[in-house]
């Protein structure tokens, strides 16, 4: 039986969020899972304010939020920031996803 752990956020992701917020904002990064996309589920990653029932992951003075509905889909996942030739973005390494789409934002269970 796999131990279910909350998602983890890499130091690189927190550092990028700090860079974004250095421009005068103080928003948290919300990572949510919604129905849709080409594989059944898709990630919604955006800047937002905390809600009372959010899981708050905090480091380097920054916050990453996960709502209670999305949390089961993100158990044991790793939230990271990737910079590649094709662009820079927040990425989710999700062991719960059985397949994902080429865009990287859609997955199935």
Write structural notes for this entry:
- This protein has one domain (8-98): HesB-like domain (Hypothetical Protein Aq_1857, Chain: A, Sandwich).
- The strands form two sheets. It has a six-stranded mixed beta sheet, covered by helices on one side. A three-stranded mixed beta sheet has the order 1-6-7.
- The relative contact order is 0.26.
- Helices cover 10% and strands 43% of the residues.
- It is mainly β.
- The two termini are 17 Å apart.
Could you list some keywords that capture this structure?
43% strand, mainly beta, Hypothetical Protein Aq_1857, Chain: A, 109 residues, six-stranded mixed beta sheet, 10% helix, 9 strands, three-stranded mixed beta sheet
What is the name of the CATH topology? Answer: Hypothetical Protein Aq_1857, Chain: A
SSE-based structural type: mainly beta
Give the integer mean of the pLDDT values.
Answer: 85
- The top-level CATH class is Mainly Beta
Considering DSSP H and I runs of 4 or more, what fraction of the residues is helical? 10-25%
Q: Tell me, briefly, the overall form.
A: globular
End-to-end Cα distance, whole Å, is 17 Å
| Beta strands, count | 9
Task: Give a short summary of the structure.
By secondary structure, the chain is mainly beta.
Give a topology summary.
Elements: E1 8-9, H1 11-21, E2 28-35, E3 41-48, E4 55-59, E5 62-66, E6 78-84, E7 87-93, E8 99-100, E9 106-108
Parallel strand pairs: 1-6, 2-5
Antiparallel strand pairs: 2-3, 3-9, 4-5, 6-7, 8-9
